[in-house]
Amino acid sequence: MFILLNDSSTRNNEGGEKVYAVKVFHGYIDGCGRRTRKKEEALLFRDVNQAEQFAEKIGGRVKELVIVVEKSEKTGALM
Fold first, then answer.
1. Which of 37, 71, 65, 68 is nearest to 51 (CA)?
2. In this predicted model, what pLDDT tens digit does every residue of 1-57 receive, in sequence order?
């Protein structure tokens, strides 16, 4: 399955799910608490309030992302 994370500012988000990540120093916080530049490895929150509380504790900011799952045009299966 291929999961694409788009910024919420990209307005072609039909069918996507909003999630929130914490940004610090040109990157994101991953599940281990380290900074990464890859959106795909970012620690994601479904609740904006939880993301804001975490960001406040570590001095980051909240970035809204949209999860988009793409389907194969040939088979119709999720990629």
1. 65
2. 345 566 655 555 456 788 999 999 999 999 998 999 998 899 999 999 999 999 999
Distance, in Å, from the CA atom of 51 to the CA atom of 1, rounded to the nearest integer, reads 26
* Single pTM value for the model: 0.72
Reported as type and span, the H/E element at residue 57 is: helix 48-58
* In contact, 22 and 59? CB cutoff 8 Å: no
CA distances, 11 to each of 17, 49, 69 (Å): 13, 23, 16
Q: For residues 11 and 50, what is the distance between their CA atoms, to the nearest angstrom?
A: 24
Residues 54-68: tens digit of each pLDDT: 999 999 999 999 887
